[in-house]
């Protein structure tokens, strides 16, 4: 099993399981700008759907449903979300593109948020419920992005820090979106929904940037790598001091 793991990812041999991380290792991992786009999407990717999910039960109560009805009506969004999680994970493996799989959340949320923004007090409670249920039944792409950060780290020591940093950014994003819906904007949260529409639009641009960012890095490395002779490549692999995703023979996932 050990041999199989190391053949699949040789970078896992550069640390053993009892070796600690030094302050310098942590600082070097934090300074790895090649992972910053993933941290950025970690910060903002849940913001378009976070507030509707957080305030789902309150929104249903404001529509006139009692406690029992509210609890029952919140079940479909969980079922839809679980189904979308499995489908998105499967899609990610099929297309082998983290960006294509994770941007689905923003494409899912944007038209629904636009519809939610247009609703008035006279809108049918069942129409409002249907839209909010679809928003809160969003495809949960967080696990895919965790794997994306791990894959682009390509180092045991970097993975340890990058996973922690990524989750810190996700938690920071949760603190931010918890304050987007405000009391003075209730019950339709017009101002809040306008903000969510803007964030979802920004996120789509951010994912596009991440795609071309990693594509450019790979293209630049391909150009250098292909300019070397076979002997130069072998000497590099044997003697290089580059580690993790700094290696010229490593390619980023996008």
Molecular structure report:
The chain has 14 helices and no strands. The mean pLDDT is 89. It has 254 residues and is an all-alpha fold. 31% of the residues are buried. The two termini are 28 Å apart. Helix 7 (75-95) crosses helix 10.
Number of helices: 14
Order of helices and strands: HHHHHHHHHHHHHH
Shape: elongated
Multimeric state: single chain
| Biggest sheet statistics | none
Whole-angstrom Rg: 22 Å
Sheet-strand content, in percent, reads: under 5%
Number of strands: 0
Report the uncertain regions: none
Share of residues in helices:
over 70%
What structural category characterises the helix and strand content? Answer: mainly alpha
What is the CA–CA distance across the termini? Answer: 28 Å
Mean pLDDT level: 89
Subcellular location: Membrane
Keywords: Membrane, Transmembrane, Transmembrane helix, Transport
Protein name: MFS general substrate transporter
Transmembrane segments: 33-51, 71-92, 99-119, 125-142, 163-181, 196-217
Give descriptors for this structure.
MFS_trans_sf, elongated, transmembrane transporter activity, mainly alpha, MFS general substrate transporter, 254 residues, 70% helix, single chain, transmembrane, 14 helices, transport
Write the layout of secondary structure elements.
Blueprint: H1 2-8, H2 23-30, H3 36-44, H4 50-54, H5 56-62, H6 67-73, H7 75-95, H8 98-102, H9 104-118, H10 125-136, H11 142-153, H12 156-177, H13 190-227, H14 230-239
Helix pairs in contact: 2-12, 3-12, 3-13, 7-10, 9-10, 9-13, 11-12
């Amino acid at each position: 099993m050990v041999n199989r793991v190391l053949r699949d990812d040789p970078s896992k041999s550069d640390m053993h399981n009892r070796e600690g991380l030094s302050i310098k290792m942590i600082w070097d991992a934090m300074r790895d700008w090649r992972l910053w786009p993933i941290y950025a999407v970690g910060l903002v990717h849940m913001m378009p759907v976070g507030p509707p999910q957080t305030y789902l039960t309150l929104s249903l109560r404001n529509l006139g449903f009692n406690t029992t009805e509210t609890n029952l009506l919140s079940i479909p969004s969980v079922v839809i979300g679980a189904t979308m999680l499995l489908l998105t994970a499967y899609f990610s493996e099929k297309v082998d593109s983290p960006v294509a799989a994770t941007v689905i959340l923003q494409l899912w949320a944007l038209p629904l948020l636009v519809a939610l923004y247009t609703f008035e007090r006279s809108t049918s409670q069942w129409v409002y419920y249907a839209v909010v249920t679809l928003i809160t039944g969003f495809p949960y792409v967080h696990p895919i992005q965790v794997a994306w950060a791990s894959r682009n780290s390509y180092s045991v020591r970097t993975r340890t820090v990058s996973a922690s940093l990524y989750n810190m950014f996700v938690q920071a994003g949760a603190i931010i979106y918890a304050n987007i819906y405000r009391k003075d904007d209730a019950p339709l949260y017009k101002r809040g929904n306008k903000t969510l529409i803007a964030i979802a639009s920004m996120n789509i641009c951010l994912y596009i940037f991440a795609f071309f960012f990693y594509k450019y890095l790979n293209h630049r490395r391909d150009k250098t790598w292909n300019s070397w002779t076979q002997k130069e490549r072998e000497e590099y692999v044997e003697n290089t001091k580059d580690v993790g995703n700094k290696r010229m023979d490593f390619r980023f996932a996008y």
